[in-house]
Amino acid sequence: MPFALHVNAERWHRHLRTFAQATTGLVPVIKGNGYGFGRDLLAAEVGDLGLDMITVGTYPEVPGALDAFAGDVMVLTPWRPFFTDVTYDARVIHTVGRIADVEALAAAPTGTRVVVEGETSMSRHGFDRHELAAAVQALGTLEVAGFAIHLPLAGLGNNLDEAQSWAAVLETSQLETTTMFVSHLTPGEYAVLRELRPNLTIRPRIGTSLWLGDLGAIRARATVLDIHNVGRGERIGYRQRPMPRDGYLLIVAGGTSHGIGLEAPKTASGIVQRGKSVARGGLEAAGFALSPFTIDGKQRWFAEPPHMQVSMLFLPASADPPAVGDWIDVAVRYTTVTFDSVDLL
Fold this sequence. Notes:
CATH class of the largest domain: Alpha Beta
CATH superfamily of the largest domain: Alanine racemase
Largest sheet: 8 strands, parallel
Shape: elongated
Number of helices: 9
Order of helices and strands: EHEHEHEEHEHEHEHEHEEEEHEEEEE
CATH architecture of the largest domain: Alpha-Beta Barrel
Oligomer: single chain
CATH topology of the largest domain: TIM Barrel
Structural class: alpha/beta
Distance between the termini: 14 Å
Number of strands: 18
Strand order of the largest sheet: 2-9-8-7-6-5-4-3
């Protein structure tokens, strides 16, 4: 397919197995675009790893997860009474973080399971620690599958201290659970937390480090679809921009619908900015933007902002051009990219 993720299957699977074996209680996170792989593929991989639970991001992701995975499915987005797409299933675990929501969810079918979330320094969702007693009183017949905290990114603050503090809150609360789901500690911090709180079952929720932990096993690649010789001043594309010098115009797979150039490339505007660009040299001074595509060993320039499904690149005459049908490498943000195909090779 034109815009593809090529995966060294043996190397990637080896990484997944090693990571899972080294991470006690692992709960893989599978949300959004599936970290570039797609959610269904990742759910199948978790099944092969023999793990019992996954975490998805939103309720619309739940039905597909239940179909692709035989274990439990936790939803990161907190339950709200106005959601119309909630799946009530014995394998679904809902997140709660407000008293009013617990009271409303208590009317759900018998056997509905929840995790109670604490509001960390992320300040995103969850109960203040002083609200837990009231939350316990409101639970009714809801089954508590655990307590959860979502911390800032690992390494940015005192995550271990904060996790320790919440673990103490859990142990002194009336919540009938000893399971604590934690996001964003380092492997060493998880180990320390287990040592400090041996009566708790600590379960790491991890996505990026699991799926994208060995970037050497994956390559984002685009197909060259067309190539044209262009002369200096020749106008091309939707915007009929003149080419800065003689060279090649390449049309390659990968555009905004794939996640290429989600933010329109910024071109130099104004005398001061253009002056700074001139000082740096290169095509930026002419209003061009650097693309994520690599050809002949160098990152190349967009000839104009990317189209919906293809990009137009300028290649100087001094470079060695690829042929139509060749693959070229492309640097992507795996959490926002959408590939035409994911090929396990």
